[in-house]
Here is the input.
Amino acid sequence: MKNNKGKFAILIVGAVVCLAIGFVVGQVVQALGSMPGGPDDPIVSQSYVEQLVGEKTAAIQSQLDTLQNDIATLKTAAGITGGNTGGTTPSGDDDKEPNNPDGGSQVTNPTKVEITGSTVNIRKGASTSSDKIGSAVKGDVLTYVSTSGDWYQVKLADGSLGYVSASYAKLK
Here is the structure.
């Protein structure tokens, strides 16, 4: 019987040690801040994810609205009229001649250049290697000055001159 009491005492001591180790591990986990279901838990609830996605979406939409307003302000300052309010869309003119998107005859006394490409660079010189000084979007109308090879020279609202590729614009 004495031998059984020793085994029972060892069992009790072992159980107490296991409880103590479990308690210490639990306190360490709690101290690290990773609570089940909390924002730091890798397995979070769907409502938390939906809330976070909603907040991020609202922030991005706010930034997008600000950028669209900035684009409209810059277009007004540059004297660019018409066109869309931003973004890029396909022109849908793939079946027409690049220099003549309407398929009609050339304009005899042009005064305007209408942008037909989604987004077109305005350059300092009549070359793709020339510095970019601005851009215009499909539907924008600029003042025509002259033609230089495959480029139209245009006058901007601030009085400066630039060039747009005739492949992405038409004379009016």
Q: What stands out?
A: The CA atoms of residues 30 and 166 lie 67 Å apart.
